[in-house]
Amino acid sequence: MKFSKFLILTSFIFALVVNVYAERGPSPQDIEKFKAKKVSFLTEKLEITPEEAQAFWPYYNQFDKEMWETQTKRREIEKKVRDSNGDFSDKEIIKLTEDLVQTVYDEAKLRDEYNKKFLKVLKPQKVLRLYQAEHQFRMEMLHQYRNSRKKD
């Protein structure tokens, strides 16, 4: 139960950070810098061996790509709602809510699928450390973003 709450909270925070970037439209350079920072951060925190890295990173990169695509769908729905004047019919609202819930469900399925893959190539302690490191990274990025906004 606690683990599922942790995953939901982590997903929410990640979505928040991604939405912040989406609102100002990150450049391809921003995205690449973000990804490079994330890889560096995770590599340091996980302390994975070269052998583990060779097996782990292809899975993680694919996971990251699929999560990005799923979260992009959710952001598009959220943007559609945000940019509207609230002029949706009940039928349209029902469809929007169903689509939104589906994206959350898809994210959970991806997390479950890749958790199993991660456990095949890393020790359970390192997989748990991965989730903790992802959370730490998001918190750090959020903190940096807030500090940059204060300077503006």
Write structural notes for this entry.
With 152 residues, the chain is mainly alpha-helical. Helices cover 89% and strands 0% of the residues. It is built from five helices and no strands. It has helices at 2-24, 28-46, 50-83, 90-121, 124-151. The chain is globular and about 55 Å long. The protein starts with a helix and ends with a helix. The mean pLDDT is 86.
List the helices and strands and how they pair.
Elements: H1 2-24, H2 28-46, H3 50-83, H4 90-121, H5 124-151
Helix pairs in contact: 1-5, 2-5, 3-4
Q: Main traits of this protein?
A:
5 helices; about 150 residues; mainly alpha; about 0% strand
Gap between N and C termini: 41 Å
Largest β sheet strand count, sense and barrel closure:
none
Q: What is the number of helices?
A: 5
Ranges where pLDDT stays below 50 over 5 or more residues in a row are none
Shape: globular
- The helicity comes to over 70%
Our Rg estimate from Cα atoms comes to: 17 Å
User: What's the β-strand tally?
Assistant: 0
Mean pLDDT, all residues: 86
Which percent band covers the strand fraction?
A: under 5%
Would you tell me the structural class of the helices and strands?
mainly alpha
Order of helices and strands: HHHHH
